Amino acid sequence: MEKPRVKWVFQEGIAEVMLCRGDKLNALDRAMFDAIDETLNAVSRQKGLRAVILHGEGRAFCAGLDVKSMLRQPVAALEILKREADEATNLAQRVAYGWHQLPVPVIAVTQGVCFGGGLQIALGADFRFSTPDCRFSVMEIKWGIIPDMSGSVTLRNLMGMDTAMELAMSGRELEASEAKSLGLVSRVCADPLEEARAFARTLITKSPDALAGIKQLYTQAWACSDETMLKEETRLQRQILGRPNQWRATLNSLFRWRLPFGPRRNAL
Questions:
Q1: Which domain of life does the UniProt lineage start with (predicted)?
Q2: What is the value of pTM for the model shown?
């Protein structure tokens, strides 16, 4: 029986998702694309989901596209780019942008290498915690292609256009320290997985409605006009203010109570 490409566990509101192709540095073949997509769908339907940690098995987070595999299956390479008429994303984009679309905080943990499609998957997370020796690259130029797994959307929120274009056009490798200085990495730490777990445990003590609202607000803020975002701040606050989770957060802070939060509102 073939080893699963992705495994995930759910405990106390936190989903831990692991790319499980460590012998290939978690490189993306067609089966890996399908497995990530299926896992995303399953995680998004999980009741009580409060946070997600995404990491890779073995020596690397993800080395990017398994080019040799795709060359052996040229039809598969075309299939992952196919977009249904009523969908905004194709399969290649969903496995990265899908993490961005989840209404909960997502933390990617990187080690070893985070190249090409692997970097675009990590960019779909809200935070990236990295080991000091991890290397990063927008590597698609090496194969004469462009970054097409939602990187054009997620990268623009982290850095200026000139820097993003320089990385994409050169394909050069970055050490974690430089990646952090450019905004690609949130934290550089000796044990990023444990730090991600500790951060997730902190986040689940906060109101799920407020966390979802913050993610939605800040995601939109970098791409919309000031007027649009000022109106959106008011709209989101009205959806949160006075609701049970907001009252619980207030009472917990005022009286040091530990009232448990209820389910996240489905729509804000």
A1: Bacteria
A2: 0.90
